[in-house]
Amino acid sequence: MLRAVRRYFLGLSNIFTVVLLLIVFFVVLNLLAGIFNFKLDLSKDKIYTLSPATYNVLKNVDDVIQIKFIASSNIPKQFMPLKDRVLGLLQEYKKANPNVTVEVLDPDKDSTAEKLVSQQGLPQLQFTEQKSGQLSLSNAYFGIIIQYLDKSEIIPQVLSVEGLEYDITSAIYRLVNKDLPEVGVVGYESSFANQNSSITNLDSVLRKQFLVTYPQLEDADLSRTKLLFIIDDGQKSYSTSEAKIITDYINKKGNAIIIADGVWVSDATLTTTPANHNLNEVLKNFGLEIEPNLILSNSAELVNFGGGQLSLVLPYRFWVKTNVFNPDKSIFNNINTLTYPWVSSIKVKDNSIVEPLVKTTNQSWAQTNEFNLSPETAADPVPEETQSFVVSALAEKKSAGKVAVISSRRFVLDQFQSQNDNLNFISNLALSLTNNQLAGIRNKSAGVYILPVYSYPFSEILKYSLIFLFPALFLILGVVKAVRR
Questions:
Q1: Torsion sign, CA atoms 296, 297, 298, 302
Q2: How far apart are CA 127 and CA 133, in angstroms?
Q3: Same structural domain, 23 and 102
Q4: Average pLDDT value for residue range 32-49
Q5: How far apart are CA 286 and CA 303, in angstroms?
């Protein structure tokens, strides 16, 4: 009995010793970080650290960049943690280059700041807040103005930090670079010319890094165009002369991204017709072909098939989701999943010049000739037929430019952008073909981390450490700081 009690208290003393040592370690680490301005980012994707692409852009800043965080004093309380995170991110820019200055301005209390936001056209945001049991509306500024020499860029609203580094860095990139690369988009009209354009989001993303034009191939001067987007619209057949213009452009060291279907699918009736875009005439010169099939996968996007009061959300196997990326490509640094609606496989004819970029999972299969697109009656695969298919690839000839192909035309359309990273991928791919300075900037999203299972007694030590360690740690740090002051 006495031995059992002794072992029990000995075990407790060991646990308390470990916890005490951990507290001492964190206190010492915090003091050293305060003295030496040291920061340790232990997050899985380094979300509290600037991306290498941002450091590359900041290297070219040889004059003062003024980053002005415009935050009204009457913002709702729930925005205060966001404000702190934004300030933390901006301070990282300041540390990365001494030419970067950071200011926090309140137009409600500073007339100079009020004049600045009026000159720059920074919009006020409308917030809803519950006070004394009633909803009240308030207007406030919560955005960023970036100034360099006589030029400026604005980020009109900061509602999260997930994509903020990308917005800030791309704004600085535009300010410090005199000439932006020219990108031509073929197959759709500009969203400025057509308010019903279905590539408004793509246009907006591209304009952050490029000078975007919408040339007509037969009349276009492509001598200054660094990259061509050729997008299948599900109707147009590119003529032999247009296909030759695209091929000649690539052969003269031009770069292109071709986004096209292998089978045309009607959204309204879920019927199919052959894809007569004629873009395989271009691709065959670079060892590629979009095959006339449709890929299904057990890794699929959730789609709402309900109507009216009935909502039925099911995985639709023809909208393929994948995270099987080429591990050697940095363009996937900030990409988690991609979604390919009604995608076809890409046949690689010449492995010496073609590099697969994205594949489906190995739980995928193909339909050919007779297509059944119904979510209820689409046939399950024979296990021997499941495999991985190439759905994005990159080809490069030594004597020519590069051509990338994505075998789903809906990949970039507005209505299919939900929880996927399609536009991030397109942006990174375009930058890698023109100027890779901005490719790979990470989203600042912490995500969820599942703790692994540990054996006893370490599991008990970990459990009680998490319960008591951090409250005790913050209490000690507060006392230390109070004493130091």
A1: negative
A2: 16
A3: no
A4: 61
A5: 35
Sign of CA dihedral 300, 304, 306, 307: negative
Whether residue 201 sits in one domain with residue 339 = yes
Same domain membership, residue 118 and residue 11:
no
**How far is the C-alpha of 296 from the C-alpha of 367, rounded, in Å?**
8
In a domain, 84, yes or no: yes
- What's at 249, amino acid-wise? Y
Tell me the C-alpha distance between 256 and 183, whole Å: 10
Instruction: Kindly report whether the peptide bond that precedes residue 107 is cis, defined as omega within 30 degrees of 0.
Output: no
Tokens of 36: 């030496």
Q: What is the CATH number of the domain that holds 420?
A: 3.40.50.880
**155 C-beta neighbours (distance < 10 Å), count:** 19
Query: Which domain, by its residues, includes 154?
Result: 52-170
Q: What percent of the chain has pLDDT over 90?
A: 44
Q: Contact, 360 vs 295, CB < 8 A? A: yes
Q: What is the mean pLDDT of the chain?
A: 84
427, pLDDT greater than 90: no
Q: What is the separation of C-alpha 434 from the centre of its chain, rounded to a whole number of angstroms? A: 18
User: Which residue's entry shows tokens 């604005």?
Assistant: 154
* Domain co-membership, 128 together with 214: no
Question: What whole-number distance in Å separates Cα of residue 318 and Cα of residue 408?
Answer: 11
Cβ-Cβ contacts under 8 Å for 145 (sequence gap 6 or more)? 66, 67, 68, 70, 116, 117, 120, 122, 152, 153, 154, 155
Q: Is residue 176 part of a domain?
A: no
Query: Residue 441: is its pLDDT beyond 90?
Result: no
Overall pTM surpassing 0.85 (yes/no): no
Dihedral, 232, 237, 240, 246 alpha carbons, nearest 10: -20
Query: Taking the CB of residue 296, how many other CB atoms lie within 10 A of it?
Result: 24
**pLDDT score recorded for residue 231:** 96
